[in-house]
Amino acid sequence: MSAPDRWVRFETAGEGPRYGFVSGESIVPIAGDLFGEWRRAGEPLPLAGARLLAPVIPPTFYACGINYEGHWRTAAEEFGLDLQRTWPRSPEIGYRAQSAIVGPGDAIVLPSDVPPNVQVEGELAVVIGKRAKHVSAAEASEYIFGYTICNDVSARGWQFQDRTFWRAKNSDTFKPLGPWIQRGVDLASLVTRVSVNGEVRETFRTANMIHSIADYIAAMTRYITLVPGDVIIMGTDGHCPQIQAGDTVSIEIEGIGALTNPVIRSDAP
């Protein structure tokens, strides 16, 4: 059976997380391996009655460094960085924490002591579909299962204060992911829009990257084995909007969907 175009991870009342695919206004549950052999498992369920979860919990969660010229320039201006030293001459890879992942509609919870400049980064997320090692750029598309959306929430004060991104980008709830995995995507036609409280704050062509997805997969698999379910988030463009408690942030990528999350502040000390 050929794979459907839209895959979800979801839960309904009385049931734990399950995978399924979207057919019209329904979810068709499956059993088996999303990235391998699977079968239908039960009757279709109303899409509107299901709670969508992060569509995948990646074995390893990778993140590209600066990968758009507009973000390179605006970040250098905002934070006083040297343009020439920060230009990504080759693909640069970082990591994000599984524990930071939440799904569509879940709250982004700002720690009580977070510095005031918390920003959102609307990013295309690539979901790997099969084991990849020593893959050429020309072959890279064969290893991609589909695409989803990530909000790479970033506490800039911590980002420059700490020696790593351990809390600036990896605090609990700082990585909304979703709403689903979309296959059959025309990358060249995608447009990303980042909105805060319904106001569009940044718009850019999603594929206008410094280093392409294929370049990244080729560079990574020279040293790292990618496995099914791994996720690579591809960076953002332009200026990153600030958020605060009470806001609602939405990242839309045409042809994939929209990821929307409210922002609250933690009461914990």
TL;DR of this structure?
Strands 1, 2, 3, 4, 5, 6, 7, 8, 9, 12, 13, 15 and 18 form a 13-stranded mixed beta sheet that branches. Strands 10-21-20-16-17 form a five-stranded mixed beta sheet, with no helix packed on it. It has a three-stranded antiparallel beta sheet with strand order 14-11-19. The termini are far apart. It is mainly beta and 269 residues long.
Task: Supply the CATH architecture of the largest domain.
Answer: Alpha-Beta Complex
> Uncertain regions: pLDDT < 50 for 5+ in a row?
none
The top-level CATH class of the largest domain is: Alpha Beta
Number of helices: 4
Shape: globular
Overall residue-averaged pLDDT value: 95
Fraction of residues in β-strands? 35-45%
Domain count: the total is: 2
Cα(first) to Cα(last) distance is: 52 Å
Rounded radius of gyration (Å): 18 Å
The description of the largest β-sheet is: 13 strands, mixed
Description:
By secondary structure, the chain is mainly beta. The protein folds into 2 domains: 6-52, SH3 type barrels, CATH 2.30.30; 61-265, Fumarylacetoacetate hydrolase, domain 2 (Alpha-Beta Complex), CATH 3.90.850. The chain has 4 helices and 21 strands. It has helices spanning 69-79, 83-86, 156-161, 213-221, and strands at residues 6-11, 18-23, 26-32, 38-40, 45-46, 51-52, 61-64, 93-96, 101-102, 108-110, 118-119, 122-128, 144-151, 154-155, 175-182, 191-196, 199-205, 231-233, 242-243, 248-253, 257-265. Strands 1, 2, 3, 4, 5, 6, 7, 8, 9, 12, 13, 15 and 18 form a 13-stranded mixed sheet that branches. It has a 5-stranded mixed sheet with strand order 10-21-20-16-17, with no helix packed on it. The longest helix is centred in the first third of the chain and has 11 residues, at 69-79. It starts with 5 loop residues before the first strand and ends with a strand.
